[in-house]
Amino acid sequence: MNRRNDIIYEVVAALAAADGSDPGSLGYTLADYVDPTVIERLVASNTASELSFQVPGHEVTVTADAEVFIDGVEYRTGRQSPVSTSERTVGGDRETPDQLQLQRFFTNLPCTVYQSRNEEGWPIEFISGNCHELTGYEPNAFIIGGINFGFDLIHPDDCERVNAAVDQSIENETPFSVMYRLQTANSTEKWVLEIGMPLFDGTEPLSIVGAIVDLSDVGPEQAQSVPSPGRVNPSR
């Protein structure tokens, strides 16, 4: 199927099948509970992410691979599949012990780990789940919800300095470290320290990876003593 165009019908059909009815007899409109364009953006995003929401009597999960789960059980055009949400990763494969350990590792780090595209505003491709504590936003807000670090979170007075640090990092093929004010979902300002580096495909800088540390308990003055990362680029 054309995943983006057909995914809404797929969700409606799965909900109807879960209720033992046909799609035309569904007793509510999907748009009353979720913005359909968010689902369409998800399956068009080419990411390993998912979206969960509630409708009357059911919890729905849609993945970027256009998988639809109703109450933890996968449906494909109304056909129930034995695969449950507890048996897979976001991308659709079963979780291995190593993957579970890696997820727990990212979540328990005292920082937020991310990967972003090297485009204006640095659209997020991956961000660890503990980003909510730092930013007030859930990971899906960055992946499919339109929230953007460069445009929405970095304080306007600090954007030029952050841009310069990343540009210099790309030009010199070195890591960067920069402190700036981050504006959270509830408009709170936090000083953060971001340490990152560009990833190249040949000579083309495709992505930025890094970690963001909340300096609320440290303060920017003490953080000035943090040494800058050395010259390294393992991707080249």
Automatic annotation (TrEMBL):
Q: Record's SUPFAM superfamilies?
A: PYP-like sensor domain (PAS domain)
Name the source organism: Natrialba hulunbeirensis JCM 10989
Gene Ontology molecular function: protein histidine kinase activity
What is the name of the protein in this document?
Answer: histidine kinase
Q: What is its EC number?
A: 2.7.13.3
Q: Which Pfam families match?
A: HalOD1, PAS_3
Q: Where is the PAS domain?
A: 118-173
Tell me which InterPro entries the record gives. Answer: HalOD1, PAS, PAS-like_dom_sf, PAS_fold_3, Sensor_kinase/Photoreceptor
Q: Which reaction does it catalyse?
A: ATP + protein L-histidine = ADP + protein N-phospho-L-histidine
Keywords, alphabetical: Kinase, Phosphoprotein, Transferase
Give the stretches traversing the membrane: none
